[in-house]
Amino acid sequence: MMRQPGPGAADPDGGPPAVCVLGLGRVGLAVAAALASHGGRVCGVDIDPRRVAMVAGHLPADDEPGLAELLGQHRFSACSSHADGIRRTSVTYVIVPTPSDDRGGYELRHVQRSFEQIGHALAQSDEPHTVVLASTVLPGATRYALQPVLEDASGRAVGDGLDLCYSPPFVALGSVLRDFLHPDFALLGVADGATGREVETVYRRVLGPGVPIRTMSIENAELTKLAVNTFLTMKITFANTLAALCDHLPGGDVDTVTDAVGSDSRVGPQLLTGGFGYGGPCLPRDNAALALLAEVVGVPPELARATDAADRWFSAHRAEALVARLRPESTAVILGAAYKAGTSVVDASQSLELARVLAAAGVHVVVYDQRAASAAGRVLAAAVAAGTVRIVDEPADLPRSPDLVVIATTDAQLTDLALDLRPALLADPWRLVTRERWPAGTEVLQYGRPNATRPDDAAFNAVRSLWADRSESPERIGPGGTGMDALVAED
Ligand SMILES: NC(=O)C1=CN([C@@H]2O[C@H](COP(=O)(O)OP(=O)(O)OC[C@H]3O[C@@H](n4cnc5c(N)ncnc54)[C@H](O)[C@@H]3O)[C@@H](O)[C@H]2O)C=CC1
Ligand SMILES: O=C(O)[C@H]1O[C@H](OP(=O)(O)OP(=O)(O)OC[C@H]2O[C@@H](n3ccc(=O)[nH]c3=O)[C@H](O)[C@@H]2O)[C@H](O)[C@@H](O)[C@@H]1O
After folding, report:
1. In which residues is NAD(+) bound (predicted)?
2. 20 to 30 A from 236, CA-CA: which of 15, 217, 260, 283?
3. Could you give phi then psi for residue 456, rounded to 5 degrees?
4. Measuring from atom 17 of ligand 2, which residue has the nearest CA?
């Protein structure tokens, strides 16, 4: 094939390397905008024309803080042609979906397709190029499943003017720009010691001098990404375990405990808030992937599995407890449909799972979310069609004095709304309603604190039995009393 010289390698203004970002989704669009905001020329490419149109400001962008202001800047362009985007740049970031597969790993078909497209574009040029995978994958995938695709399609070998790196961002939805530009560290996996220089140059410019770049092998970087996410879920689940223990302790208060535990610098305070369990497009799937890797190489997978099993157990147990408090035909309002405050994303939302459980028990459920109502409607389409769940985005459409209100996310405006509704029972998993605001006539249930408005002697008795005559100790204290061991064993 005839190779054409590409204009890619150097920026015409003599600036930092020009970057192509393949995949302008929830993460890619903001990452591309962040790269362009710091002086580099960036060309985004997406197979979805609506995402391409967002870059020029022709369509409203995602509701990421700061993103709208960065669209339409002259250094940031987008197109639908992989060849155009790649040949005008010297570094290509790939941030396309890697959905979970039925074993718990990540599907690679979108990344493979992207690597083919990059390979075909690079086959036409002799210019040096660096390909950086940023999507979440299992350790080994980049080198063993994806590098051959790139080499076959380009007719070039990695190491010979073609660099391959793995560099996933640590960004949470709702703060992608901030997290990308100000991370605790940047993670850079390189094919061998001599590669990755172009990416380091990009990072040095974008991230500033204070951010360490952890450069390591591709496989170590793949594992590091997975390790951070799975460690975070373990931390959240640990906080939820403390919350469930505090439910049964006279005067228990999970925030007092986690504040103190988190102030130990070996532990740290972040993601140590007991609440509603973890959801979203990322965290719920990463333990399954780590467990799969562990199992395949013969390492105990139980730690990762137990985290997920405990998370599911807490959700199911909390939902059952609410169902037990309601009669069929009762009305329940769930405030917040997204997996966390500040986003319209409903993937693996704990709130929608609760809606399903309550509706299945015959409760009339109304879910409120200003941003996520339409996405929630798609997820709960069957229940909405059956008339068991109603989804609204206007406070005026909420029923007054329902039997139950649940404040599902930490969105500040939901607290006022919950109080206005004057429910009989108010479930406040995140303990957002301060005691002086508890409305008269409403029973308030806060996860991680004993039910102060209706003290439950049975819960305290469970603790007292620790010191009772062993013959009187209830079975539930013994192993298996919660059914958790069965859950782990089933996985
Ligand atoms: N959502 C999150 O908070 C985070 C996600 N990640 C990882 O980043 C990756 C992407 O995630 P999201 O941005 O959430 O996905 P997304 O689904 O929001 O966006 C992916 C984009 O890629 C585009 N695309 C698919 N195939 C393409 C191709 N061949 N060429 C060009 N564009 C293509 C799609 O049209 C879509 O716009 C996943 O691996 C995810 O695990 C990493 C950190 C955070
Ligand atoms: O790899 C990824 O995709 C990303 O996954 C998470 O980002 P995200 O899922 O957007 O959101 P988080 O803010 O971490 O929250 C995740 C879930 O944990 C819950 N959570 C969070 C904090 C906490 O203390 N307790 C708790 O239950 C939240 O409500 C939410 O459901 C990580 O925070 C990012 O660093 C990572 O890059």
Report:
1. 46, 51, 98, 136
2. 217
3. -110, 100
4. 278
Q: How do strand 91-94 and strand 76-79 relate by DSSP bridges?
A: unpaired
* DSSP one-letter string for 395-437: GGGSPSS-SEEEE-S--HHHHHHHHHH--SEEEETT--S-GGG
46 is in an annotated binding site: yes
Judged on CB neighbours under 10 Å (0-12, 13-18, 19+), 396 is: exposed
Q: Which residue has the tokens 């939902």?
A: 319
Told to judge if 282 belongs to the known catalytic residues of this protein, a careful annotator would answer yes
Answer for the pair 25, 97: CB distance below 8 angstroms, yes or no.
Answer: yes
Enumerate domains of the chain plus CATH numbers.
19-211 (3.40.50.720), 227-309 (1.10.1040.10), 312-463 (3.40.50.720)
| Full DSSP string of 217-285 | EHHHHHHHHHHHHHHHHHHHHHHHHHHHHHHTSTT--HHHHHHHHHTSTTT-STT---SS---SSSHHH
Q: Do the interacting molecules here have an ipTM over 0.95?
A: yes
Contact 352 CB / ligand 2 (< 6 Å): no
Rounded Cα distance, 345 and 174, in Å: 10
Length of the chain: 491
> Which protein residue's CA is at the shortest distance from atom 14 of ligand 2?
172
Mutation to probe ligand 1, out of 47, 67, 93, 96 (largest number of atoms < 8 A from CB): 96
Residue 454 DSSP code:
S
Find the 97 Cα to ligand 1 centroid distance in Å. Answer: 4
pLDDT digits (tens, 9 = 90+) for 136-172: 999 999 999 999 999 999 999 999 899 999 999 999 9
Distance from the alpha carbon of residue 199 to the mean position of ligand 2, in angstroms: 26
CB 279 less than 6 A from any atom of ligand 2: yes
**Which residue owns the Cα nearest ligand 2 atom 32?**
172
What tens digit of pLDDT does each residue of 386-439 get? 999 999 999 999 999 999 999 999 999 999 999 999 999 999 999 999 999 988
Separation between Cα atoms, residue 249 and residue 268, nearest integer Å: 24
User: In angstroms, rounded to a whole number, what is the distance separating the alpha carbons of residues 478 and 466?
Assistant: 11
- Parallel, antiparallel, or unpaired: how do β-strands 186-190 and 162-166 relate? antiparallel
Instruction: Return the ligand 1 atom nearest residue 134 CA.
Output: 8
Residue closest via CA to ligand 1's atom 44 equals 171
Distance CA 52, CA 80 (A): 7
Task: Give the residue among 119, 121, 109, 123 at the shortest CA–CA distance from 150.
Answer: 119
Alpha-carbon gap, residue 119 to 248, rounded angstroms: 59
Ligand nearest to the CA of 54: 1
